[in-house]
Design a protein that fits this description.
- The protein is 70% helix and 2% strand.
- The chain contains 15 helices and two strands.
- Strands 1-2 form a two-stranded antiparallel sheet.
- β1 and β2 form a beta hairpin.
- The C terminus is likely disordered.
Length: 383
Amino acid sequence: MGSLRLILAFAVAGGHALGTFNFPNIYLAGGEAVQIFYMISGFLIALILRGKYADSANGNWIFYSNRVVKIFVPYLTLLAATVALSALFYVFTGKAVSLNSFVQEGSTMSLGTWLFAVLTNLLILGQEWAFLLIYRAGELFFSLQALDQPPNAAQFTIIAPAWSLSIELAFYAIAPFILRRNFLVIAAVAFASNCIRFEAYGRGYYSAATDCRFFPFELSLFLFGSLSYFLYDLLNRRNLFHPALSACLTGLLVTLVALHPRWVDIKPYQFFVLVALLLPALFDFAVRHKWDRWLGELSYPLYLVHWPILAFGIAISGLPHMRVLGQSQAYPYMLIAVSLFASHAINQWIVNPVDSWRQARIRKSSTEPAEVAISPAAQPVTG
C-alpha cells in the first residue's frame, strides 16, 4: 500500500511539475490520484476506528485530536516556511513567489475576500470551495464553472494541493458515526452518495470543481475503501493471505498506475472497483514489508511540499541568467527530486516526533491500544 501511495503522490507532483513548465503530463491525472487516496484513507480509517479506538467519547476525542495534529502540524509548519521564504525572496528579488496574488491584488481585495483567503489557508477547511468562486474586482462570486473562468479564488491558496485535506477532514468528522456501523449501513450510505453524484451530473451540475472536490460526492469513494476493510478483516481472520499473491497484486496495481495511466483516465470508475478489491492485498503486503511502509510515509509530505518547491523553482528560473532552467525538461524532475529529499527531512524532523508523541498519548489511555503504526496522515492527497 505504501508503494501505491507514493506513486499517487508522485503522479500529482509530476503532473504539476511538467504542467508548470508546459511539458505534457505523462502521469495519472491528479484528480484521479486524489480519489484513489480517498479510498485508501477510507480503508485505513475503518481499520483504526474498528480495531484501535474505543467506541466512546474519550476514544473519539483521541481520534479527532490525533487526526488534527497529524494533518496540521506538518501543514502549518510548511505554510509558515513558505510565507516567510516568499517574503524574503520578495525583499531581495521583487518576486513574491507564493504570495504573488496577495501582493498584486491585496489593495483591491474586499474584506470578505481577505477573510476567505486567510482563514482557508490557516484552517484548510473550505479550500475546495475556492474552485467554485470566481474573482472579479476584489470580490468573490459563486460559479459552477469557476475553474474555466479565471481568475478564481484558488489563486489565493498558498499550498494549492491542500484543498483535498479539507475533504479528508470532513470525512474524519463523520467517520466515527458511520464506520462503526455494519457492512450494509456503510454500503447503503456509499450507494446513496454515488447516486447523488450521478444524478447531479445528469442534471447539469458536473464541472472540474465537482469532479473530485465536492465532499457529498466523494464520500462514496471513502466508504468504498472502508468496505474493502471488511474484506481484509474476513480474509485476515481466516488466514487466507499468501505473501507471494499479495506481492503480485501490489505489483500489478502499482504498475497500472505508473505505466498505464491513460487506461485509468479512460475507465476511472472501473479502476476504482479494482482498487477496492485489491486494497486488502496491498495492506497485507505493507504489513509484511517495512520498506513499503517507509515509502508510503513519504506520500503526505511530498503531496504538500512539492507545490512551494515548484513555486520557488519557477521564480528562480525567471531570474536573469537562469531562464535556461525553465527550458530544460530535466528541471521539473530536479525539483521533484528536491521535493523527495524535503519530504524525508519533514518526516525525520516533524512527522516522526509528532507521531511518537501521538503514540505515547494513546498508550496512556487505559482503554485503547496504540494506533496502528502505518495509519495515514491524510491522503490526497487528497489528494
